[in-house]
Amino acid sequence: MEFEKRILDNGLAVISEVNGFAQSAAVGFFVKTGSRDETKQISGVSHFLEHMLFKGTEKLGPLEVNKAFDRLGAQFNAGTGEENTVYHAAVLPEYLADVTHLWTELMRPALRDGDFNMEKNVIKEEIAMYEDTPSFDVIDKCRSLYFESHPCGNSVLGTRESIDALTPKQMHDYFTSRYSPNNMTVAFAGNFNWDKMAELIAQLCGDWRRQNVFRETADYAGTIKAERIQKKNLVREHICLISPAVSMQDERRFAASLLATIVGDNVGSRYFWALVDKALAETATMQRESMDGTGAFYSYIRCSSENLQKVLETVKDIFENLDGKGVTEAELTTARNKILSALVLKNEIPMGRLVSLGFNWIYLGEYRSTEQDIADVKAVTVDDVNSLIRQFKPGRFTKFILGPDSTKTNQT
Amino acid sequence: MEFEKRILDNGLAVISEVNGFAQSAAVGFFVKTGSRDETKQISGVSHFLEHMLFKGTEKLGPLEVNKAFDRLGAQFNAGTGEENTVYHAAVLPEYLADVTHLWTELMRPALRDGDFNMEKNVIKEEIAMYEDTPSFDVIDKCRSLYFESHPCGNSVLGTRESIDALTPKQMHDYFTSRYSPNNMTVAFAGNFNWDKMAELIAQLCGDWRRQNVFRETADYAGTIKAERIQKKNLVREHICLISPAVSMQDERRFAASLLATIVGDNVGSRYFWALVDKALAETATMQRESMDGTGAFYSYIRCSSENLQKVLETVKDIFENLDGKGVTEAELTTARNKILSALVLKNEIPMGRLVSLGFNWIYLGEYRSTEQDIADVKAVTVDDVNSLIRQFKPGRFTKFILGPDSTKTNQT
User: Fold this and answer.
1) CATH code for the domain defined by B2-205
2) Given this model, what pLDDT does residue B4 score?
3) Do B72 and A339 touch (CB under 8 A)?
């Protein structure tokens, strides 16, 4: 594996990891923009814009875009989050230049008014669908309660109202300022010729105009609040808990992942043995989510209304025990094996390497090999995890519950 | 990549493909048994038995099994089909011996009466769940209509009645005759020491007793029938079409895959442009499913009752056109790129290689590298696909429709 990089004069970063033994190649365009970079007035514009890129350019209509990916046999996708909008494709090595060329065209979209107005309905349907998915909705609502006015609490999809009110001009302006080359990274992974790809990007993207780009990244302590909302159609209690954790730039992020795995991996964790194995909850998981300058632990638990009280007491016990006694060497060993195995399996394919490559560059401005990540996970000690518990106190969380309206248990 | 094999005295096949550059390793136990090897009296026993293996051995209880996989950080799973029951795990190389040892223990299960009776309810819940999933149910019902009394039409899950009536003795007998070492293949892929793993299997499985094992593999022409069933809770028409195709042993299987992709890939296919892009159907796909000695093309289409008639007419037109004019060079090129890219991406990870390795051995008794498969896909010509169409006539299908009971369109 060799790392290569080249920064164009307009600020566009081109990075790559060549693996001559791979049989495929992957390319990704990472745009450092997401819901946290939006104001209330344009809430949802990042995600909406991602949809609009597939509507094509002045030269290519939506149908031609579809056919072009199809002809190359490309496995492609895109996604928008709080902090990044990522476009990627995996292809046979001989089609990497063609699919890269296609993406560079899509990155300078036509943003036609007609497509914009049609696509509003697709976005509003997506909003409706997610509102009807309580496991998603409860996390969105809890995030908003936890982050309050901090931009990390912004919804990725936006609201029906913000989407309805959005104008083509607002999207154009957002596009111009955020899809600026100095706010983007192009990454390649797998089997390809680096010089050829770097030259291709320089040729196709060298004339993209640089803008001033800014992101507010102040850390944020988070609230400690509790709320419960009733919905008629629900038959289960959906619980989300959020507490502070480390940022993407924090070296303790591996220790934080180990802690989340010990507490809330989907099998064999403290949540699993105390809640799922005892049939108190149907599912109970905890994850570490690190962001630019801040981070949080997220728990999601689903149970019957009948068990709600007992589940909340058990969660309280789990965190009190954790705070008092810490984790054990045996727990750390099991969690380490799980994380290492997931890490290695994910990074064995060019698509997996691409994502690691891109995010390490965006958040850390550095290249990290899979071996470095493995070594860092292996180096975490019980003391590291326990000092994280003492400092971050994961039992002090903001809690949001979505539940049926007919329940007798209405305390939060 | 090096292929290695060793056949133990009791008939157990141990095969492997070592890839010194992989960072993980995978192991799989392939048992050549499934619903087609069952009689009506024991319908569903293969799948039920797969569940029972995780209940442990004389020495290991279900909880210990769970904890053992957990401790190794193993990503593991099992699945039962018409022809095979497969158990597999991917781990870091240093845990391959341990996870292999664990699987060899599970392959000689305790099959306790208490676990057997408890698990019946789990199986019956799974049957109920799939019956409530019309996209699954319609294929199951269509397969049964198409294969009639041929064992390939047997249901994998069985029925509530067959599961209720099943006795521990019947399962024991089935286990003894089917999980015989000469009916099993152990496969390894990824980064590991072949001699060490072959020796481990010889030590742990060398004393498994060989039995006489038999499978009926006569080819089958299939019926050309049509049926429609109404269900109150449905809001859409679910259509399944089945017609004859090539077996796993037939060299034309790559041409058959290309044909299915041209007709029914989920984007860019004839179905896509004529049905999905025109908003007549919500989804429309076709796949080639090859089996031991026989094979079939399966189509699944979902649409509103209002569009049903138009959809069926369009499908008729598609196949008439295909029969009369064949496929084009451009269609073949696009389909080839899609199949090659999916093939390469799947086989880039040890888990993907493991599955190819195992099935090639079971069905063909040979090793095939990814490169051989690529070459065979590339070698298929328009003439090959067109002669397949002339011979198999995919427009002559058995059709099953599951739809709402209030529809005005009740013709099938």
Assistant:
1) 3.30.830.10
2) 97
3) no
Choose, out of B64, B261, B337, the residue to mutate when testing the contact with A (most A CBs < 10 Å): B337
The set of residues, in sequence order, having a beta carbon less than 8 Å from that of A90 and lying 6+ positions away, is A24, A25, A26, A74, A75, A76, A190, A349, A350, A351, B341, B345
Query: What residues does B298 pair with on adjacent strands?
Result: B242, B287
Our CA dihedral for B159, B164, B165, B167, rounded to 10 degrees, sits at 120
Hey, is A200 helix, strand or coil? helix
Q: Which two tokens stand for residue A60?
A: 């290519």
φ, ψ at B199 (rounded to 5°): -65, -40
User: For B84-120, what is each residue's pLDDT tens digit?
Assistant: 999 999 999 999 999 999 999 999 999 999 999 999 9
Compare B39 and B409 and report the one with higher pLDDT.
B39
Q: How confident is the model at residue B233 (pLDDT cuts 50, 70, 90)?
A: confident
pLDDT digits (tens, 9 = 90+) for B10-62: 999 999 999 988 899 999 999 999 999 999 999 999 999 999 999 999 999 99
Residue whose tokens read 């009689």: B39
Cβ atoms B57, B209 nearer than 8 A: no
Whether A67 sits inside 8 A of B268 (CB atoms) is yes
Mapping DSSP onto H, E and C, the string for B137-150 reads HHHHHHHHHHHCCC
Same topology, domains B2-205 and B226-403? Answer is: yes
Q: Do A71 and B333 touch (CB under 8 A)?
A: yes
Instruction: Out of 3.30.830.10, 3.30.420.150, 3.40.50.300, 3.40.50.720, select the CATH number for domain B226-403.
Output: 3.30.830.10
Q: Which residues of chain A have pLDDT under 70?
A: 406-412
ipTM, two decimals, is 0.81
What would the two tokens of residue B368 be? 């095939």
Distant-in-sequence contacts of A99-102, Cβ < 8 A, 24+ apart? A99/A27, A99/A69, A99/A72, A99/A74, A100/A27, A100/A186, A100/A188, A100/A197, A100/A200, A100/A201, A101/A200, A101/A204, A102/A65, A102/A68, A102/A69, A102/A72
Joined together, the tokens standing for residue A260 give 């989340």
Alpha helix segments (H runs only) across A251-369: 253-264, 270-271, 308-325, 329-347, 350-364
- pLDDT for position B409: 47
- Mark residue A252 as left, alpha or beta (left: phi above 0; alpha: psi -120 to 50; beta: remaining): alpha
| Chain A residues within 8 A of B336 when measuring between CB atoms | 73
Q: What is the pLDDT of residues A336-377, one digit of tens each?
A: 999 999 999 999 888 999 999 999 999 999 999 999 999 999
Q: How many whole angstroms separate alpha carbon A293 and alpha carbon A151?
A: 12
Q: Taking CB atoms and an 8 Å limit, are B348 and A92 in contact across chains?
A: no
pLDDT mean over B163-188: 97
Question: Which residue, among A1, A336, A341, has the nearest Cα to B190 in the 3D structure?
Answer: A341
Cβ neighbors of A120 (< 8 A, separation 6 or more) are: A48, A163, A164, A166
Q: What integer pLDDT is reported at residue A217 of this predicted model?
A: 84
pTM: 0.89
Q: Which amino acid is at A142?
A: C
Partner-chain contact B341 A370, CB within 8 Å: no
Q: How many helices (H) and strands (E) does chain A have?
A: 15, 11
Instruction: State the nearest Cα–Cα gap between B243 and chain A, in angstroms.
Output: 26
Distances (CA, A) of B278 to B135, B240, B274: 21, 20, 6
- Structural domain boundaries in chain A: 2-205, 226-403
